[in-house]
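Subgroup meeting minutes
Present: P.N., E.W., G.H.
Scribe: E.W.

1. P.N. recapped why we're keeping a running log of single-chain structure predictions: easier to compare across weeks, and new members can see raw inputs and outputs side by side.
2. G.H. added today's entry (263 aa).
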Amino acid sequence: MLDDFMIRAALAGIGTALAAAPLGCFVVWRRMAYFGDATAHAAILGVALALALDIPVFGGVLVTALVMGLAVTTLSGRGFATDTLLGVLAHSALAIGLVAVSFLSGVRVDLMGYLFGDILAVNATDLAIIWSGAAIILALVTLRWSALLTSTLSPDLASASGIDSRREQMILTIALALTIAIAIKVVGALLISALLLIPAATARSVARTPESMALLAALLGSLATLGGLGLSYGADTPTGPSIVCIATFFFLTSLLLRRQETG
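Output recorded in log:
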């Protein structure tokens, strides 16, 4: 069954959506959209380093995303304006990565695939990495859900309860880096933040509890993946952007439904 490239693509997209959904909720709650952008843009630098050092791309992207996330977490508390810091690091990492790729001689680099994803080229090894990473992320978020949620919604209550908010931020950073590493094959570095943010933002419009928001975001992300694959197959459109377009359609639909309810 896994010899069928569309089935592999669907499984890869669903695995990525399941991993991204709960983290996307925290991105929305903490207003960390630019943080996700900065970490995702660093993925291209990770690709260049991995190819230059002849190591797996997944490892290079994971390490670079972790370094970027930890750098932002550390520097943002030392007098740097967070939005400025994120802008500088995001664009610098992307530019350095693109320039570094151009210096790789004798190495064939599918730059468009890394920027916008190449889900149709996913193989069995990629699937194993995606689903293993998704399982780790879901287990980590499940174990730390209460602490992460408390430190997100009420830092004062978290402090009173003995929860270290910086530790929870670090855990979230590690989980985001892992998600970006597994998602780069599916939607690419430039669209990873969209897959994190849009399903969660859509779910927020209709969910009543944090848990239902995470579950609904996972469902919407999976449906966007399947819808994007269908659109790409039927209309011969790029798959990664098609997935994001379907997710955006869900978001706009949720806004219209919400306006009708309040109107």
